Amino acid sequence: MVRRNLFLISSSKVHGYEYLQHTRDALTDFLKKNNVSKILFVPFALFNHDNYTKKVADAITTWGFEVEGIHKHENPVEAVRKAEAIYVGGGNTFMLLKTLYEKELVEAIRERVFSGGAVYVGSSAGTNVATINIKTTNDMPIIYPPTFDALRLVPFNINPHYLDPIPGNTHHGETRQQRIEEFHQLNNTPVVGLREGTALLVEDDRITLVGDFNARLFYKSKAPKEMPPNSDLSFLLKE
Amino acid sequence: MVRRNLFLISSSKVHGYEYLQHTRDALTDFLKKNNVSKILFVPFALFNHDNYTKKVADAITTWGFEVEGIHKHENPVEAVRKAEAIYVGGGNTFMLLKTLYEKELVEAIRERVFSGGAVYVGSSAGTNVATINIKTTNDMPIIYPPTFDALRLVPFNINPHYLDPIPGNTHHGETRQQRIEEFHQLNNTPVVGLREGTALLVEDDRITLVGDFNARLFYKSKAPKEMPPNSDLSFLLKE
């Protein structure tokens, strides 16, 4: 058994909901079950760390949790080593990953999460970096990271903000599914297409799909599979 | 004056047209004006090089030009050195750039184009790699290239397949404009948002917008500007 407690959200914003509200109940349950009272927020996927931390704190403190930004700590590695919950917010995945490496947080977060010391919450880019690598991000590569390898808290890929083809669309850019099929020409790991409004709850060796929509599961050289809400996706950890 | 003759297409496929047909007249003029009879096609942005070369040849040979795939040459650098036209097709920008470096084609193409020996035609990913770097590609980073720096045939960035926000869209992934604004938080070069159905014709120090749609021009910390068909964009080469 691998120890880990992860809550990997597709996106913080969902149509029809205020910021983070779509996942309020499930995320609150997750944090309470793990006795979290204070959250270390990692705002490095966006540029204004203070504003970003305030935005997340404004949403989450009303649920009964304390939020502090990691950028306020002189020693961010030490902050990770003491954290009970690490929440990595969305934004640009390339900038996020580069900053995590620069601040030597990749190994620090891995150790803290795998030792059971802290739970990990990711949203969008924060979900991308939790996986094996960032090769299935939707973001623009605005900065060159030292590698595409990421936190490897789970041994597969996620495509957050997964998007179905828009009927009647006349644009000729690739669909999301075509992009993931391109990924599978060069890579073997499964990809979970995580639609907005859904999340993966990872408890040690068990994964549950959270939210009201299906996930779309992509394997190399196989037809994609729709997985309904509450599906047990633990098999993804065995391959 | 810098010598160069480039035809940089947003996309080979455009709604309502057969493959490459939207640009048939302008591209034929460009090639004839430069006395091209044979085109060296670079299919490295897709996986099946033979099929891809055949698809392009099927379209272009009927216009009166010969097409050969660079992958058929034992020495691709030598093929570039002898080429009169180099056409780099679209697909995945990351895979394309990585392959160009692996086969030592980046410097070879630069030298050939800047010496006036060959004209350069790019489409989509082939247009991305013609610019200063690939940081404004739309593609998924399915493979890690040695750098994001590209052919630098022009000193600015292009976003091919440029897409306006879709009215009534409920998806919360970033719009194309938001992504380019993120790029400008970390980078200073102008970005030409090149809509499907348009191209840039670059003749030495002169640039003309080709096609029936506006281009959208993005500068760091400025409001974007719409440039109508046939605009003179030569000022982009002076900054």
Summarize the structure.
2 copies of one chain form a homodimer. Chain A has helices at 24-33, 49-60, 76-82, 93-102, 105-114, 125-128, 176-186, and strands at residues 5-9, 38-42, 66-69, 85-88, 119-123, 157-162, 191-195, 198-203, 206-211, 215-218, 225-227. With 239 residues, chain A is an alpha/beta fold.
Overview of this protein structure:
Two copies of one chain form a homodimer. Chain A is of the alpha/beta class and 239 residues long. Helices cover 27% and strands 22% of the residues of chain A. Chain A is built from seven helices and eleven strands. Chain A has helices spanning 24-33, 49-60, 76-82, 93-102, 105-114, 125-128, 176-186; strands at residues 5-9, 38-42, 66-69, 85-88, 119-123, 157-162, 191-195, 198-203, 206-211, 215-218, 225-227. The interface between A and B is large, with 39 and 39 residues.
Shape of chain A: globular
Q: What structural class do helix, strand and pairing data of chain A support?
A: alpha/beta
Estimated radius of gyration of chain A: 17 Å
> On the 0-100 scale, what is the average pLDDT of chain A?
96
Treating each run of at least 4 consecutive H or I residues as one helix, how many helices of chain A?
Answer: 7
How many DSSP-defined strands of chain A? 11
Low-confidence stretches of chain A: none
Largest sheet of chain A, if any? 7 strands, mixed
Query: What helical percentage do the residues of chain A reach?
Result: 25-40%
Tell me which protein chains meet in the greatest interface and how many residues each side has: A-B, 39 and 39 residues
What gap, in angstroms, lies between the N and C termini of chain A? 14 Å
What share of residues are in beta strands of chain A?
A: 15-25%
Order of helix and strand elements from N to C terminus of chain A:
EHEHEHEHHEHEHEEEEE
Strand order of the largest sheet of chain A: 3-2-4-5-1-8-9
Oligomer: homodimer
